[in-house]
Amino acid sequence: MQRAVLVGCGAMSKAWFEAIRTIGDIDIVGIVDLDVERARARAGEFDLATAVVSHDLATVLAKTAPDLLFDVVVPGARHATVAAGLDAGCHVLSEKPMAETLNEARDLIRRAQEAGRIHAVVQNRRYIPQIRRIARLIRSGAIGEVTSLHCDFFLAPHFGGFREEMRHVLFHDMAIHTFDAARLFANETASAVYAREWEPTNSWYRQGSSAAAIFEFSNGTVFTYRGSWCADGLPTSWESAWRIVGSKGTLLWDGYDDIQAEAVTSGKDGLFSEVVAIEIPPLDASDRVGGHLGVLQDFIAATRGGSTPETVGSENIKSLAMVFGAIDSAETGRRIEITI
User: Which stretches are transmembrane (predicted)?
Assistant: First the structure.
């Protein structure tokens, strides 16, 4: 049985508590939140009467000596929370984003390496079944080498609150999910980006609700992104609508359940090569799915001697760097080389 402390009891924490309960063999011995009553409410909701509840993380870590720390705090508190957990000898799983700056992310990677502990990030959307199936098909070579990826993200949510006041809201708050999926599909690291943001006349956001970006990957693959959070009518899914072009064929995904692929045959029909439909592979028994649960399963398995989770900090920083590269490009109007 592993001992764990969970920090941050806002709305997102419920998904964490539920996933932890599903996995089992994890004893939540401490719950931390600046609002102690909110922490007590979560303890009551999940029958954690013996957990130490406090607003002070250092005190809880000292009292409970946990093996694991689950970080569900606001981004501004992330670096201090993760650093405290690693310093206390914990393996740490964090909500996204990994950090507020690349320098903070680099520091957390260094701290985890020096502590000999795992620090991973809940990049939960790469664990949805459709993304796992698409990645499996690409790895099979059925459409050849991926040469370009293109996605559209168009929604019009009225969140209210902090998002509508954020700068670079689309890139900073949402696009990392799409960028991370592109990195998974391409199986490469982004090396450069050119991006632009704009504010349509109907926008209810402060800045950055609409954006476009062109990414270059290290192997020459190109990824184009078009998106808006104030595009009423005919919405895409939250996962975007995708076209993935390979050297031998193409895959389309509507962001929901419809995945189609075609590959070139040996013949030609006039101007064009003949193509044949490709069956999309089913999930494999080894595939992790389930959003938070999938990430948590990988993380827990790693802390128990399994393989390194795919969202470990040293990997997730590559997706975070795409976000900051796009923001830097949008601010300067220049093509930006992406460094990790």
Answer: none
Centroid of chain to Cα 259: 21
Domains in the chain: ranges and CATH: 2-121 (3.40.50.720), 126-286+319-337 (3.30.360.10)
User: For residue 233, what are the CA distances in angstroms to 201, 228, 261?
Assistant: 16, 12, 27
pLDDT in tens, 123-168: 988 999 999 999 999 999 999 999 999 999 999 999 998 889 999 9
3-state SS, 264-318, equals: EEEEEECCEEEEEECCCCCCCCCCCCCCHHHHHHHHHHHHCCCCCCCCEHHHHHH
pTM for this prediction: 0.93
Give, to the nearest 10 degrees, the angle between helix 292-303 and helix 13-23. Answer: 50
The alpha-carbon radius of gyration of the chain (Å, integer) is: 21
